[in-house]
Amino acid sequence: MNLKNSILILAGGGPAPGINTVIGTVGKCFLSRGYRVIGMHGGYKGLFTPDPKLSELDFATVDAIFNNGGSFLRMSRYKPSDEDFQERFNLKLFRDNNIKLLVTIGGDDTASTANRVTNFLKSHDYHISNIHVPKTIDNDLPLPMRTPTFGFNSAMAEGTRIAATIYEDARTSGNWFLVSSMGRSSGSLAIHIGASSHYPMIIIPEMFDKSTITLDKIIRLTISSIIKRRIMGLDYGAVIISEGVFHTLSTEEIEKSGARFTTDEHGHIELGKVSKAQLFNNILETYKEKLGLSVSTRPVDIGYEFRCQTPVAYDLFYCTQLGCGVYELYRQGYTGCIVYVDPVGQTKPIYLHQLQDPRTGRIMPRLVDINSAYAQNIFRQMLNFITEDDYEAASKWLKNPEEYDFYKILNWKRK
What we know:
By secondary structure, this protein is of the alpha/beta class. It has 2 domains: about 5-150 and about 310-350, 3-Layer(aba) Sandwich (Rossmann fold); about 155-305 and about 365-410, Phosphofructokinase domain (Rossmann fold), CATH 3.40.50.460.
């Protein structure tokens, strides 16, 4: 038994640039104050096994990893059941190592489970603190003042580099690329990457605020951009679509696609296992044949390339602040909270109930504010699509160009 005060760090969910910066910073803050720092591999799974995989984190280790991509601690999406807590919880781990603080890195599920762990330990007369560091490249956690989630800026930077290269390929080869970007709930990554790369069409769930998302509308928006570019004398381009668009489609619309899907044990379609770009391209191929439209399209999925990349300077600094914030909140006696650093650098605690919907208890994802100035400028000024002014020219390729009018498809007013 080691009676030295210890902290335990684990990471859950998927990777995001900056995880190692958080681990490294937290490690340095506590090691320099005489604490023992233990890293747990496998996310929460390690708490429910008699022989968890642990790493003793010394100063040399945390100093070597803080600016690396990926995660030094192996991650998982393991979510313990009530039975796990009652029958498999490793209470001995906490007692034998004199753990005083549990630091968790992950999304809202990881934060909720941290509260369950703390409450369970309390019921067994073992009291610890827990502080959570929120991460997601999707930028969809509703942090105050629209503060970005860590990892988003790094993902956006790498996504823009890849998307810009794809756009140059389109210009060089005279093709169109259909790019699907990660972002299950929010279109934040897609709009930022698409706008930064000057893509002529960006499709995100939030733009359907006045109409229902359908496969037909997705395709018509794409064709609208292809034809508008032809009118402009350009035979190439790229469309970026947020994967959240597909997750928002109704089951009927998904089945209409004609794609083959696997289902889970409840019979639900496992859309996460399907290439969204390939699905998009397959449907477009059918439409092109019906229209007699000759255009070469190529599908590309992007997202996994972002998750373990080296963090950019913004996230290195931001995650260093978050790591320091963990120690500050612990020193001040806070527990059961999320660490938040506001735009002026002040560290504050946020509790889950402050982010949860009071009626459902769920944390609702932060979406792109489609009516904001930045979003409206991108959609109305930067994209290429058919409007009433183009009907005559577009009739060379389309019998009914009004059906491909961007504003009519979305039911938006033209300003």
